[in-house]
Amino acid sequence: MERHRWDIDVRLAALVGSPVRVRAEQLWPRGWDGKLMCTPIAGRNLILTDGSAAGGDPIYVEGVLNRCERTIAVVSAELT
């Protein structure tokens, strides 16, 4: 049985291949070998380029949307 496609699904699919900015609660970075790391980094634990911690500030990530997957209340996005 195919899942119902909501308006948000259509909108997200239309963004694939486009540059986007997303708010991230957690990040799954790639290692030096190009593979996804085993555990995510919570946004609050992210160390910024100036050496400070993000703490409770929102984290925004920019890139080209390669793919996305939506579940209830969560959208997972892969950017390059």
Overview features:
3-stranded antiparallel β-sheet, mainly beta, 80 residues, single chain, 36% strand
SS elements, strand count: 5
Assembly type of the chains comes to single chain
Measure the end-to-end span. 32 Å
The ordered string of helix (H) and strand (E) elements is: HEEEEE
**Shape verdict:** globular
Mean pLDDT: 88
Poorly predicted regions are none
- The neighbouring-strand order within the major sheet is 1-4-5
- What structural class do you assign from the helix and strand content? mainly beta
Verbal overview:
The chain is mainly beta and 80 residues long. 11% of the residues lie in helices and 36% in strands. It is built from one helix and five strands. It has one helix spanning 7-15; strands at residues 19-24, 26-27, 41-42, 59-71, 74-79. The strands form two sheets. It has a three-stranded antiparallel β-sheet. A two-stranded antiparallel ribbon has the order 2-3. The longest helix is centred in the first third of the chain and has 9 residues, at 7-15. The chain is globular, with a radius of gyration of 14 Å. The N and C termini lie far apart (32 Å).
